[in-house]
Structure formats: C-alpha cells, structure tokens
C-alpha cells in the first residue's frame, strides 16, 4: 500500500483531472476522443499543487512589489516573504542559513554560476575537473566549455555495464590536480543513485571541491548537504512541485564568500562609485537585478507541501512505483531497460522496445493519454555509450499510482504488438 494518501494528494493537482486528445482505439492516428491523462514525465517537470498556486497568486493579488528596495509596506512584505523563502530552502536541505542559498533560474544556471564565478578564476592548465559519464548536459557542457577556456582537463568517471559508477575509476581519476568533482546525485536517464558522500570524501582527500547535481534527488528523497558533505548543490523548483523560473544553488558560506559575483547590477551592490563597487552580503551578492519573487515564494510553499507529506515517505512511494514499473516492463519481453535494478534506483525508468523508435513509441503512448519523455534526456554521450540514439523515460511523483503504471505497461505492450 502507499506510504500516504495518494488520492488526497491528487485532489490538490487539478491538472491531473484533464484529458488529452489521443485515441486508444486507433493508436498512431492521433486526434481522437478525450483520453484521461496519465502523466509520467515528472523528471522533466512536476505539477504544481493548489497551495503553491495560491501562494503565488496571494503575492500577485495582495503584495506584489519589488524586494530589498522600498520602505513602503508592500515592498517590505514582499521582501520578508522572498527572503524567508531562502530560510525555508536552507532548513530543507540542512544548510546553515540563507547566506548559503542563492536563488537562480534553474539547476542549469546554478551550474553556470559556479563554473563562471569560480571556474574561470580558479582553473588553469594542469588542473582537472572530474565529471561522470552520466552527467546531464547542464554540467557536462558547462564544465567542458570552461575546460576549453581555462585549459583545465575534463575527465569522466566511467559508467559500468550495470549503469553504476566505476568507483575504482573514480579513485584513479580524482587526483591531486583535481579542483572540482561535479556529480549527478540521481541520474535522470539511468535512475542510478550515486554515492555522493564517498565521492565527497575522495574529492576532499585531494583538496578538491565537490558539486552535487541534485535536480533528480531533492524532489524525491531526503537530501542533507552536511550528510553528503558537498561544497555546492543545485536543484530546480519545477521538478519539486514548485514553479518554473526558480532554482537553487547551495554553496558553503566560506566558498561563496571568496567568489566573485557572477552577474553585476542592482541589488547585489553595497557601495558604488564611478571607479569601483563593493558587494552586498550573501546570498544577495549573487542575485543581481529583480529576482523571481513570486517563484521564490512559490518554491517555499512547495517545500512546505512536500515536507508535510514527508520526504522519507515520498522516497518510499517513488521506490514502490519504480520497482513495479521495472518488473512489469521487464516481464513484457522485448524491452531493454537502462540502469540498475528496480529497487536500487530513483523514481524513473528509461527503456527501449525492440523494433520501435523511441519517438514513435511516445507518440503512440500519447494516444493512450500516457505522457512520457522520448529523446536523449540531455545525456547524449551516455546514450552514445549505450549504443542508442534515444530512449523513452517514465518518471514518477507523489500523485502517480500503480494503476497509472499499469496503463503505461498496457500501452507499451500494444505499441510493441502494433510494430511487430
Ligand atoms: N540535472 C539533471 C540531473 C536534470 O535531470 C535536469 C533536468 N532535466 C537538469 C540538471 C537541468 O535542470 P533545469 O532544466 O531545471 O536547469
């Protein structure tokens, strides 16, 4: 049984009541009758519950105003809510306070912030940055390009046949010239849960920093920056029941303090003359210009919402669905699933069906109302290594049910038979 009342949760997400225009009677032909939506594309974006939409609309209806600047009441109310949203995030991931929490647009911008503000200053020829072969393009492309600009070598820890990290290779690649280890916590393609703490120990033994890409872990498992012992960590609001346009960079205070700003302008300065400028305290030093105020407030409401359910229970729910989907898809035959076994993964399953292109499969699934992702999931080099151009990915969240996994598996079976 579910670790919490999934039907009650579903009531908070009106979007789950809508239908889509596919027609299971004539799969592959598109436009048919309304078909109930089975939303299994949560690794791309999760839906937003009513309390989050309400928190954002309360802001727009009641106290919409710019932050940090005004002394009028609306601005003060907006500033308090926006600043306190940083405290909510800090507490959620075990950071020491708001000074360690920078709001960005998304995970990608958080990576770029560190790559530009820290990487361009600190890296040079002879240094290396260690990634993994399963990195999302958000970190892979970013560090690859910073490597080209600074002359630093960019290395990749190998992924084994089972879809886990080769830790012997990690120990060989992380050396005394390593300055940064950037690792995805839960792979958005393989579902692998990487041993961040072990990698952090390796990195720190060599005086390197470590950055955890937590875009797929913060949404559905407990994440604590102290337990993981990471120097940086990033995630996105829109994958955690929150709005788009808001992401989080956690950084250790001493490191953020020593870094130059990433963007310059208003709100991030303390004193400006024609000759020079000084910077605001953390985290505002890294939040130039008018920030995403409603979205920051919405993110805090999303965190309150998931904390109310309980991250431990969310993890158990994701495991239940991922394991069930893995077993049922495997039992179909003719399905190749990527990554570790069902009980050792995050809440997603990427796969291919023999003889059916991933895009054709997802288009047929759409006729069954089943929304999944097809493509390389921003892990092109990993797909190259797996020997396929694309895969489909079903990913789960708090509102998904076993019946929805059944709908997925039924649709996959029919699609397979259609192409046989
Ligand atoms: N890293 C991982 C592991 C992801 O799954 C994603 C989103 N697919 C990102 C980074 C990038 O997130 P965003 O698009 O919100 O910047």
Automatic annotation (TrEMBL):
Domain of life: Archaea
Catalysed reactions listed for this entry: (sulfur carrier)-H + L-cysteine = (sulfur carrier)-SH + L-alanine
CDD domains, per database record: SufS_like (cd06453)
Enzyme superclass (EC): transferase
Cofactors, names only: pyridoxal 5'-phosphate
The Aminotransferase class V domain, residue ranges: 38-408
One Pfam entry name: Aminotran_5
GO molecular function, one term: pyridoxal phosphate binding
EC number in record: 2.8.1.7
Gene Ontology biological process: cysteine metabolic process
Transport is among the record's keywords: no
Residue span of region Disordered: 15-35
Key words of the record: Lyase, Pyridoxal phosphate, Transferase
NCBIfam families: sufS
Role played: Catalyzes the removal of elemental sulfur and selenium atoms from L-cysteine, L-cystine, L-selenocysteine, and L-selenocystine to produce L-alanine.
Similarity section: Belongs to the class-V pyridoxal-phosphate-dependent aminotransferase family. Csd subfamily.
Protein's UniProt name: Cysteine desulfurase
């Amino acid at each position: 049984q579910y670790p919490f009342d999934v039907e009650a949760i579903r009531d908070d997400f009106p979007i789950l009541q809508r239908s889509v225009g596919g027609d299971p009677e004539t799969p592959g032909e598109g436009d048919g009758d309304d078909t109930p939506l089975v939303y299994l594309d949560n690794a791309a974006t999760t839906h937003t519950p009513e309390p989050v939409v309400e928190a954002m609309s309360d802001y727009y209806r009641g106290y919409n105003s710019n932050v940090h600047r005004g002394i009028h009441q609306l601005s003060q109310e907006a500033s308090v809510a926006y600043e306190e949203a940083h405290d909510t995030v800090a507490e959620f991931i075990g950071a020491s306070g708001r000074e360690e929490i920078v709001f960005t647009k998304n995970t990608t911008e958080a990576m770029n912030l560190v790559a530009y503000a820290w990487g361009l200053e600190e890296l040079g020829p002879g240094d290396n940055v260690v990634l993994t072969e399963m990195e999302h393009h958000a970190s892979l492309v970013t560090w690859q390009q910073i490597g080209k600009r600074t002359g630093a070598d960019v290395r990749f820890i190998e992924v084994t046949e089972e879809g886990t990290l080769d830790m012997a290779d990690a120990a060989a690649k992380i050396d005394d010239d390593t300055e940064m280890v950037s690792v995805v916590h839960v792979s958005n393609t393989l579902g692998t849960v990487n041993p961040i703490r072990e990698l952090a120990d390796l990195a720190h033994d060599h005086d390197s920093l470590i950055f955890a890409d937590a875009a797929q872990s913060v949404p559905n498992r407990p994440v604590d920056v102290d337990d993981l012992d990471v120097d940086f960590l990033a995630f996105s609001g829109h994958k955690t029941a929150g709005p788009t346009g808001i992401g989080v960079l956690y950084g250790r205070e001493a490191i953020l303090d020593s870094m130059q700003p990433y963007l310059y302008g208003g709100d991030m300065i303390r004193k400006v003359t024609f000759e020079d400028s000084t910077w605001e305290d953390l985290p505002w030093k890294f939040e130039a210009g008018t920030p995403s105020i409603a979205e920051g407030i919405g993110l805090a409401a999303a965190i309150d919402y998931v904390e109310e359910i309980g991250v431990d229970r969310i993890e158990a729910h994701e495991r239940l669905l991922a394991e069930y989907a893995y077993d049922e898809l495997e039992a179909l035959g003719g399905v190749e699933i990527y990554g570790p076994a069902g009980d050792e993964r995050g809440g997603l399953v990427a796969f291919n069906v023999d003889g059916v292109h991933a895009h054709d499969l997802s288009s047929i699934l759409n006729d069954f109302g089943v929304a999944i992702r097809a493509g390389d999931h921003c892990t092109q080099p990993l797909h190259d290594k797996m020997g396929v151009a694309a895969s489909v990915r079903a990913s789960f969240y708090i509102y998904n049910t076993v019946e929805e996994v059944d709908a997925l598996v039924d649709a996959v079976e029919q699609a397979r038979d259609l192409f046989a």
